[in-house]
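Give me structure tokens for this 109-residue protein.
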Amino acid sequence: MSGYVRATKLDEEFEGERVTGLLAPLRLPDLLRLQSTQVANDEDAARVLAEIVPQYVKDFAGLTAQDGTVVPIEEVCSSAYFLKLAMAIGRKLVTAATPPQLPSETSAS
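Here you go.
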């Protein structure tokens, strides 16, 4: 049976609010962008995540601004205030896209 998952549950806490949603599988070109030499530090990773994460997050809910309005995922990914949350979402995407390490096969002698 395959370990492939078509949707990964997002459940993070940010400033006392429970942020939920579903994450679609990360496409290979975007995974490669995140793993490329263009992403040398957290600043580079944040830039790439701001571009790609919104398209993978579905049913995003639970985050409100101080005025009570809902904060959409696009704002989370583009505002420096939410950097820690955006990075957590990005890590979850990458983790879900990476298959588990299979045990090495031992050769029979």
